[in-house]
Design brief:
The chain is mainly beta. It has one helix at residues 39-42, and strands spanning 2-10, 18-24, 32-38, 45-46, 59-63, 75-81, 88-95.
Length: 97
């Protein structure tokens, strides 16, 4: 399982920034998309000024890996695709068996 906290503010209500998370079991030769969230479902608030999150603006995400993912060594990649949004904050990343 992968879990983490994040906070993100859209600059405008029409922004479609996207957070993608990938995993690789072969040193990054191949990546598998396991999570994608964008637009309003990603944003914790809308704020036009540079964003610094308050304590109540953080969300927690937990992703269960598919049963077939049984790699001894795994890499995780976070990718933020920005289309004019604000800062994305990620904290407290945990990977558990």
């Amino acid at each position: 399982m992968l879990s983490f906290n994040y906070a993100f503010a859209k600059r405008h209500s029409t922004d479609v920034d996207e957070l993608r998370i990938y995993i690789s079991g072969n040193c990054g030769i191949n990546w598998h998309l396991i999570f994608a969230k964008s637009g309003s479902s990603l944003s914790t608030i809308v704020q036009t000024a540079p964003y610094i999150p308050e304590i109540d603006e953080w969300k927690n995400i937990s992703i269960n890996f598919h049963e077939s993912v049984n790699w001894k060594h795994m890499q995780v990649k976070f990718e933020m695709v920005s289309y004019g949004g604000n800062y994305l904050y990620i904290d407290d990343v945990k990977i558990q068996e």
